[in-house]
Design a protein that fits this description.
- By secondary structure, the chain is of the alpha/beta class.
- Helix content is 30%, strand content 26%.
- It has a single domain, classed as Vaccinia Virus protein VP39 (Rossmann fold), CATH 3.40.50.150.
């Protein structure tokens, strides 16, 4: 304890302070949390979970409901399942989600979060040294419609988070029958085409609005570390009549 206070004194003399980390200290996450509370969300479908970073953040923010994380990449899934195993309300499924069931090849990136079924475009590859594919893995794809009733009850207020590196539209296309039971969604959108064939920001905003959702928040995401140009955002939507 004494050492901690000595360190804080030194840091304060330099004009800084040391404060405990909490997600709600960040305005974007605080706004997200306020929306989830306002709409009484009790179930999160975490599509493209990677190693469980999103679920961990929401737990630290105070979310106590059910989380179901979907992740196809074996190495990431092993870490994800290990974390979820300590939380009785956190389930995991090793699969990708798309518009139809089947199998596809996942391109594994040096930065695992950038792994994608689609190929990277130069705009993404040139933005950082770790944006390159280093391997491949055959993965299963299922539709959200085929899994929805298994993981979401009829009276649950469901929030769908999609972070699938250019495959977001495909995930929503596979949830046509489930959308009416999804109160809100958070979708990672690219401002420029980062993956070959992905649907970018303007078109995706229009598409999701046509499904009955209203845009309620934007969270800045990945940017070009050489130029500062913003490349991705997380867009949060809710049904206003919910």
């Amino acid at each position: 304890m004494e050492l901690r206070w000595q360190v804080k004194k030194i840091v304060r003399r330099l004009g800084y302070d040391i404060v405990p980390y909490h997600p709600l200290n960040y305005p974007d996450i605080r706004r997200r949390w306020m929306l989830l509370q306002h709409y009484s969300i009790d179930t999160i479908l975490d599509v493209g979970a990677n190693q469980g970073q999103y679920a961990e953040t929401m737990r630290k923010a105070g979310f106590k409901g059910k989380i179901i994380s979907f992740e196809p990449l074996s190495a990431a899934y092993e870490i994800l399942a290990g974390k979820a195993g300590k939380d009785p309300k956190w389930s995991t499924v090793q699969t990708a989600l798309g518009e139809v069931a089947g199998r596809k090849t996942l391109n594994i990136a040096k930065k695992p979060q950038a792994s994608s079924i689609r190929k990277m475009n130069p705009a993404l590859m040139n933005s950082s040294d770790d944006m390159e594919f280093t391997g491949r893995e055959e993965i299963d794809i299922q539709t959200l419609d085929s899994l929805f009733d298994t993981y979401a009850g009829p009276n649950e207020n469901v929030y769908l988070k999609i972070d699938t590196q250019g495959y977001e539209r495909n995930v929503i296309e596979g949830a046509r029958h489930s959308l009416s039971r999804i109160m809100g969604m958070q979708v990672e959108l690219s401002l420029v085409e980062l993956y070959d064939g992905e649907v970018v920001f303007d078109e995706m905003i229009g598409y999701i609005k046509k499904q009955g959702y209203t845009l309620m928040s934007l969270e800045p995401g990945y940017f070009d570390k050489q130029t500062g140009r913003l490349l991705q955002v997380d867009a949060i939507f809710f049904r206003e009549d919910s």
